[in-house]
Amino acid sequence: MPDTAGSTGRTPETHVIDFRAAEQLLAARDPRGAVKLLDQVIAAHPENTAARLLRARAFFAAAQLRPAELEFTVVLEREPDNAFAHFALARTYERQGRGDQAKRHFRLAAALDPNPQYLKAARFES
Protein backbone atom coordinates (compact mmCIF):
# COMPACT_ATOMS: atom_id res chain seq x y z
CA MET A 1 0.00 0.00 0.00
CA PRO A 2 1.46 3.43 -0.96
CA ASP A 3 2.42 5.92 1.73
CA THR A 4 -0.07 8.78 1.22
CA ALA A 5 1.57 10.87 3.92
CA GLY A 6 4.88 11.01 2.08
CA SER A 7 8.24 10.82 3.77
CA THR A 8 7.36 13.55 6.27
CA GLY A 9 4.51 11.62 7.88
CA ARG A 10 2.18 14.54 7.18
CA THR A 11 -1.40 13.87 6.15
CA PRO A 12 -4.03 16.10 4.56
CA GLU A 13 -5.53 16.45 8.04
CA THR A 14 -2.26 17.68 9.54
CA HIS A 15 -1.97 20.19 6.71
CA VAL A 16 -5.38 21.59 7.64
CA ILE A 17 -4.28 21.77 11.28
CA ASP A 18 -1.07 23.51 10.21
CA PHE A 19 -3.06 26.00 8.12
CA ARG A 20 -5.34 26.83 11.05
CA ALA A 21 -2.36 27.09 13.41
CA ALA A 22 -0.66 29.45 10.93
CA GLU A 23 -3.78 31.67 10.97
CA GLN A 24 -3.54 31.78 14.76
CA LEU A 25 0.19 32.54 14.71
CA LEU A 26 -0.36 35.41 12.28
CA ALA A 27 -3.15 36.78 14.47
CA ALA A 28 -0.78 36.49 17.46
CA ARG A 29 1.86 38.50 15.55
CA ASP A 30 4.20 35.60 14.85
CA PRO A 31 4.40 35.79 11.05
CA ARG A 32 7.67 33.87 10.83
CA GLY A 33 6.12 30.95 12.70
CA ALA A 34 3.16 31.09 10.34
CA VAL A 35 5.46 31.01 7.31
CA LYS A 36 7.23 27.90 8.62
CA LEU A 37 3.96 26.01 8.93
CA LEU A 38 2.68 27.24 5.58
CA ASP A 39 5.88 26.22 3.80
CA GLN A 40 5.01 22.60 4.61
CA VAL A 41 1.39 22.99 3.56
CA ILE A 42 2.34 24.62 0.24
CA ALA A 43 5.06 22.07 -0.46
CA ALA A 44 2.41 19.37 -0.23
CA HIS A 45 -0.36 21.40 -1.90
CA PRO A 46 1.17 24.03 -4.21
CA GLU A 47 -2.23 24.65 -5.79
CA ASN A 48 -3.73 25.81 -2.48
CA THR A 49 -4.42 29.49 -3.10
CA ALA A 50 -5.72 30.12 0.42
CA ALA A 51 -2.44 28.89 1.90
CA ARG A 52 -0.48 31.06 -0.53
CA LEU A 53 -2.55 34.12 0.37
CA LEU A 54 -2.01 33.49 4.07
CA ARG A 55 1.73 33.02 3.49
CA ALA A 56 1.83 36.27 1.49
CA ARG A 57 0.18 38.06 4.42
CA ALA A 58 2.70 36.51 6.81
CA PHE A 59 5.62 37.59 4.62
CA PHE A 60 4.18 41.12 4.52
CA ALA A 61 3.76 41.18 8.30
CA ALA A 62 7.38 40.05 8.67
CA ALA A 63 8.50 42.85 6.31
CA GLN A 64 9.70 40.27 3.78
CA LEU A 65 8.34 42.32 0.92
CA ARG A 66 9.80 40.53 -2.09
CA PRO A 67 8.47 37.09 -1.03
CA ALA A 68 5.13 38.74 -0.20
CA GLU A 69 5.03 40.32 -3.65
CA LEU A 70 5.74 36.98 -5.32
CA GLU A 71 3.03 35.16 -3.36
CA PHE A 72 0.40 37.86 -3.95
CA THR A 73 1.27 37.70 -7.65
CA VAL A 74 0.75 33.92 -7.70
CA VAL A 75 -2.62 34.37 -6.00
CA LEU A 76 -3.64 37.00 -8.59
CA GLU A 77 -2.57 34.77 -11.48
CA ARG A 78 -5.04 32.20 -10.16
CA GLU A 79 -7.71 34.62 -8.92
CA PRO A 80 -7.47 37.88 -10.89
CA ASP A 81 -10.71 39.08 -9.29
CA ASN A 82 -9.39 38.79 -5.71
CA ALA A 83 -9.80 42.37 -4.47
CA PHE A 84 -7.98 41.72 -1.20
CA ALA A 85 -4.94 40.30 -3.02
CA HIS A 86 -4.83 43.39 -5.26
CA PHE A 87 -5.07 45.65 -2.20
CA ALA A 88 -2.38 43.74 -0.31
CA LEU A 89 -0.08 43.68 -3.34
CA ALA A 90 -0.59 47.44 -3.65
CA ARG A 91 0.40 47.89 0.00
CA THR A 92 3.47 45.76 -0.66
CA TYR A 93 4.45 47.93 -3.63
CA GLU A 94 3.76 51.05 -1.57
CA ARG A 95 6.14 49.88 1.17
CA GLN A 96 8.77 49.27 -1.51
CA GLY A 97 8.40 52.82 -2.84
CA ARG A 98 6.78 51.65 -6.09
CA GLY A 99 3.89 54.10 -6.15
CA ASP A 100 2.75 53.69 -9.76
CA GLN A 101 2.39 49.94 -9.40
CA ALA A 102 0.67 50.40 -6.04
CA LYS A 103 -1.84 52.87 -7.48
CA ARG A 104 -2.81 50.44 -10.25
CA HIS A 105 -3.56 47.63 -7.79
CA PHE A 106 -5.34 49.93 -5.31
CA ARG A 107 -7.64 50.94 -8.16
CA LEU A 108 -8.20 47.36 -9.26
CA ALA A 109 -9.10 46.41 -5.68
CA ALA A 110 -11.58 49.28 -5.44
CA ALA A 111 -13.11 48.45 -8.81
CA LEU A 112 -13.62 44.83 -7.76
CA ASP A 113 -14.93 45.64 -4.27
CA PRO A 114 -16.25 49.03 -3.13
CA ASN A 115 -14.80 48.47 0.34
CA PRO A 116 -14.29 51.97 1.86
CA GLN A 117 -10.66 51.15 2.68
CA TYR A 118 -10.01 50.17 -0.94
CA LEU A 119 -11.80 53.25 -2.30
CA LYS A 120 -9.82 55.58 -0.03
CA ALA A 121 -6.51 53.98 -1.04
CA ALA A 122 -7.43 54.15 -4.75
CA ARG A 123 -7.64 57.97 -4.67
CA PHE A 124 -9.77 58.10 -7.80
CA GLU A 125 -10.12 61.86 -7.53
CA SER A 126 -6.38 62.41 -8.05
TrEMBL record:
The species this protein was found in: Streptomyces humidus
Pfam families named among the record's database cross-references: TPR_19, TPR_2
InterPro entries in the cross-refs: TPR-like_helical_dom_sf, TPR_2, TPR_rpt
Keywords of this entry: Repeat, TPR repeat
TPR repeat residues: 83-116
Regions crossing the membrane: none
SUPFAM superfamilies to which the protein is assigned, alphabetical: TPR-like
The protein, known as: Tetratricopeptide repeat protein
Repeat is among the record's keywords: yes
Superkingdom in the source lineage: Bacteria
